[in-house]
Amino acid sequence: MTKYDWQFSVESWPFRTPYRFAGHVWTSLDLFVARVNDGTHEGIGEGAGVYYHDEPVADMPARAELLRDRLENGLTRDELQQCLPASGVRNAIDCALWDLESKRSGVAAWRSAGLSSLRPLTCVQTLSIADPDDMAAAALAVPSARALKLKLAGDGLDGARVRAVRSVRPAAWIGVDANQSLTLRTLEELFPALGEAKVDLLEQPLAVGQDAGLEGRDWPIPLAADESVQTATDIAALAGRYQVINIKLDKAGGLTEALRMADEARRLGMKIMVGNMLGTSRAMAPGMIVGQHCDVVDLDGPLLIGRDIAGGLDYSGGMVRAGACRWGQA
């Protein structure tokens, strides 16, 4: 029987510029990295965790160590789903297993996931919260971006923010992300500005647990559930409240569950978005597999950090491509 060697570590990645979203300012990002080696091949996975679940990255190696014996003796991806809850730890381990399987079998992960190819995808580029003029300047600073996502603050300036960005980027796809910062009243007040700016998508307007206020409403812009949806079991209850589901591998606990989420969303007639909790190309590459099923692709983690691993994904021309990235490649 093959014995698998596992290594767990934490890396710290400083941001080139602070990342601001509703109620938060981040200047660096800690990442949990899982590596598995069978003596010939190595697989790697990366997790950032879910910040609003109080999932400290510093604790992740110790949590992973609890599974060491089973992992070293060949724990499978399906078995992993039963051993750990959805989390950044499970995400990193799950993706490391996918990567190792591709290297051992000679079959790319995307093909094992049932795809016939791994297409380049239009990739959203996120703009941190700032004053309206500064967000417009930030939009102009990324002229190759075909799709922009504006972080909203719920502070009364959001309408001005979207108008300012639309005025300088008339042809771009624009989505906005409230990160739970709105109330039902401020959401309704914001819609005229969003309509005027031809906003294409609004993510998570209300706080988790307040989604019932969205039930059955005929909103002029599609709404996407983010913080309100974690795994496939959450989706059915949201079908009458949101039109789009945002799948993130850290929330789902890995690519295995993320693909199940995509299947469930399609079954319910909902559109699909793939997002990220930030990270390097090691985390975005498995997201590209989910992205093949998606209407919106938000895998801009390395762009927000401002740097990436060597041999990362190719983000040129407002797209994301496999490029030189070897994750999941045979």
TrEMBL record:
Residues 132-224 form the Mandelate racemase/muconate lactonizing enzyme C-terminal domain. Its cofactor is Mg(2+). GO terms for biological process: amino acid catabolic process. It comes from the Bacteria. InterPro entries: DgoD-like (IPR034593), Dipeptide_epimerase (IPR034603), Enolase-like_C_sf (IPR036849), Enolase-like_N (IPR029017), Enolase_C-like (IPR029065), Mandel_Rmase/mucon_lact_enz_CS (IPR018110), Mandelate_racemase_C (IPR013342). The active site is at residues 151, 248. Belongs to the mandelate racemase/muconate lactonizing enzyme family. This is Dipeptide epimerase. It comes from uncultured Sphingopyxis sp. The lineage of its organism: Bacteria, Pseudomonadati, Pseudomonadota, Alphaproteobacteria, Sphingomonadales.
